[in-house]
Structure formats: structure tokens, C-alpha cells
Write a structure and sequence with these properties.
44% helix, nine-stranded mixed beta sheet, 16% strand, 14 helices, alpha/beta, 3 domains, single chain, Rossmann fold
Length: 398
């Protein structure tokens, strides 16, 4: 390696080192995505809120729901006593609730048994809204600031001002017989309802339309944590069933098979039926008629016999006989094809054959001369046989 190349390589390595150093020295850009994940310390994660639940509810256990609400609470339901083996509050904080209808119905059942359901979402489950006769006006993402306040005068000092991540969704219709308005949001000097408690059976369902109020960014800003604490004060100090954003199984749907697959006996029966159907289709797809036997065409025995005789003569070196047979067959061919007399192979014969066959007279003369010589020869060789065969084949093909 010459000196110049070493210098270039050194400069290249130095350049890469500088680029890497600059890249690592840059501050990482802030991720403003709204994850509402309790493990994320991003601005719109809920790490702080989830971490402080044990302080907000000192007498409660905080349990994370890693499956769907249906699977979680269905396992805790005692079918013999028609009671849940747990109590407390189900809690969900998410921008868009992806709760399926089966899980939504499970949450309604859980609340009806004297428990609480708290959902902070811009878009709560539609089935729950329909069941509670509540409607939401879905407006637009609001650019600017808004004021969140609670209806209870005791929390008058706990109002907060929020400037980022807002949506202008609010309750436009509520059942006054079962609903208690707990909070408002003020956009453009207009108060709209954003936090309600709706009685359902023996329990309550709390719906809050501004989940950003419980994110890291807003809890750390000013003294906003007092608003979140005031909202949580409406909930009973019992087990908190926190709906985690880190599911162990995210491939769930509204399929009617959900119930079948959740029960071992029904699940095994379903898979057995499915496998049996597949096997039936595979075996039944085979053709039912008997396999047709392949019959080989009959061989031309004359050609086979001729080949056998020819090989026999050739292996015994009986060239005279082979030459005699080939001459006999050739003359017979001339008689049948050109109707010419082959008893006297003279110049007249050669001339007539040339005219009738339209072949070169000199070639025919060479072939006839060879035939006459071989007839007169007593001991023919393999060379004689090959020469005769060549001239005859030339006559056939040219």
C-alpha cells in the first residue's frame, strides 16, 4: 500500500469518526407522538400518572390488564354466583379507544355489579356511548389554549390551562336522569361538558374526553397535577385495573369465535372439526375412477426381426451375405419403384434409371459398377459393405 493511499484511508476514517461524533452529540429530537403508554417517558406518555396511582389510591392494588377487558374480567367472573371475584375501577387512558363490542359489554357488566369504569379518551367506545344514551360532538383538533375545570365548587382552584394536544370534542347529549356533569372545557370563552359520571346498574361509568390532561407533559407543567388528582378523587379507593398499552396479544377482533376460542372444550372441538373438514376435502378431491392402464403400442415385428438378422450377420463377419441382401433389396426397390428390368446391369440400364429417377448418371454408374464388382468378388470386406451402404443411401436421399 503506497503512502498516498494510506493518507486517503486515514482521512476517510477521520471523516467517519467526525460524522459519528456529531451525530451522537446532537440532542435527540422530542417525540411528540401521543402513545399514552404507561412505560413511556415521552411528553404524551403516561409514565408519571401510572407511577403515582399508588399514591393517589394508597389502599389499592394497581393491576395491569395485558389482554382485552373481556378476557381479563371474564376470567374473574364466577358463573355459579353470578358475581365478579374482584372489585374496583377499570381505567383506560387513550386517544382513540379500540375497545371491541364484546369487551365494551363486559365493562358495562362490570360496572353494573357496583364497580367503576373510568375512560379518558377523545373517542370512547361507541357501544358504551349508545348504551348510556350519550352523544359526542366530534369537532377538530384545537390550536391554542383551553381551560379545564371541575363542576364541584370544592375544586374551583384546581382548574388548569392546557395549550398542546387538545381536541375540541365534547358531550352534546346526555341522559339527565342518570348523568352527573363533573367537568368542563372552555374553548373560545364557551364552556362545553368534557367529564361526566353516568350511573349504570349499581356502579358508575366516568367518561373524560381529554386524555392529554393525564400525560407526562401536562402533569409536569405548572401545577397541573392537582387537576388529575381532583378527577381521580371521584373514584373509589379500591383495586385499579389499569388497561395497559403493552398487550400480550394484539391480534384480537370482534369475531363470534372469541367465546368459542376462550373455552378449552369448545376450542378443541372447533379445531377438531376444522381439521376433519380439511382432511375430508383432501381425500375426497382424489378422482374416484379406476386408474387407466397404460398400454404400450405393439412393436413392428418385421423391423425388429430385420435388425436382429442384420446384427447376427454383422457379428459373425458374414459381409458377403449382408452385401448380397442389400443388393437384392436395392434391385427389388428399383423394379417396384421405377418398373425397370434389373437382369442386365449395362449402360442402357444406367441410362434408363437415370432418366426415370432423375438422378445423376455418374453417381448411378459408380453404384452399379460397385454392385457388379461385389457380385464377382468372393471375399468381401467390411470396407466394401460400408462403401455399398453409402452409395445406396446417397441414391435414396439425393
Amino acid at each position: 500500500m503506497n503512502k498516498t493511499l494510506k493518507i486517503y484511508l486515514g482521512l476517510l476514517v477521520l471523516l467517519f469518526a467526525i460524522v459519528i461524533a456529531i451525530d451522537f452529540s446532537k440532542p435527540k429530537p422530542i417525540d411528540w407522538s401521543k402513545t399514552y403508554n404507561e412505560l413511556h417517558k415521552k411528553p404524551y406518555g403516561t409514565f408519571i400518572f401510572h407511577d403515582q396511582l399508588k399514591n393517589l389510591f394508597p389502599n389499592s392494588d394497581v393491576k395491569s390488564i395485558k389482554t382485552t377487558p373481556y378476557e381479563y374480567f371474564d376470567d374473574l367472573y364466577n358463573w355459579e354466583d353470578s358475581l365478579y371475584n374482584t372489585s374496583g375501577t377499570y381505567m383506560l387512558i387513550k386517544g382513540f379507544s379500540e375497545t371491541d363490542d364484546i369487551s365494551a359489554q363486559e365493562l358495562l357488566d362490570f360496572a353494573s355489579h357496583g364497580n367503576d369504569v373510568f375512560i379518558a379518551s377523545n373517542y370512547p367506545p361507541k357501544m358504551i356511548l349508545d348504551s348510556l344514551s350519550a352523544k359526542i360532538e366530534y369537532a377538530y383538533d384545537f390550536i391554542g389554549s383551553a381551560e379545564f375545570s371541575l363542576a364541584n365548587p370544592l375544586f374551583k382552584e384546581d382548574s388548569i390551562k392546557v395549550e398542546k394536544g387538545l381536541s375540541n370534542n365534547y358531550f352534546s347529549k346526555l341522559d339527565s336522569l342518570s348523568t352527573t356533569v363533573l367537568g368542563y372545557q372552555k374553548f373560545d370563552a364557551v364552556n362545553k361538558v368534557n367529564f361526566v359520571k353516568i350511573e349504570h346498574g349499581q356502579g358508575n361509568i366516568y367518561l373524560h374526553l381529554q386524555p392529554v390532561a393525564f400525560t407526562n407533559y401536562h402533569l409536569l407543567k405548572n401545577n397541573n397535577k392537582k387537576y388529575a388528582a381532583a378527577v381521580m378523587s371521584y373514584l373509589q379507593d379500591d383495586v385499579i385495573h389499569f388497561d395497559s398499552r403493552n398487550k400480550t396479544n394484539t391480534n384480537l377482533s370482534n369475531s363470534p369465535l372469541r367465546f368459542i376460542l376462550s373455552k378449552p372444550a369448545l376450542r378443541n372441538a372447533w379445531w377438531l372439526a376444522l381439521v376433519s373438514l380439511i382432511l375430508f376435502m383432501i381425500f375426497n378431491s382424489k378422482r374416484r375412477q379406476r386408474i387407466v392402464k397404460v398400454i404400450k403400442p405393439l412393436e413392428n415385428s418385421t423391423i425388429a426381426f430385420t435388425k436382429t438378422i442384420g446384427n447376427l450377420y454383422y457379428e459373425t463377419k458374414d459381409h458377403n451375405t449382408i452385401i448380397e441382401k442389400k443388393i437384392t433389396y436395392f434391385l427389388e426397390h428399383l423394379r417396384r419403384t421405377y418398373y425397370i428390368n434389373t437382369e442386365l446391369l449395362d449402360d442402357k440400364f444406367i441410362k434408363n434409371l437415370s432418366l426415370k429417377s432423375n438422378k445423376d448418371k455418374n453417381d448411378i454408374k459408380a453404384l452399379i459398377t460397385l454392385i457388379l464388382n461385389l457380385k464377382a468378388k468372393s471375399n468381401c470386406t467390411e470396407t466394401d459393405l460400408l462403401e455399398l451402404n453409402r452409395l445406396i443411401e446417397d441414391f435414396y436421399t439425393k
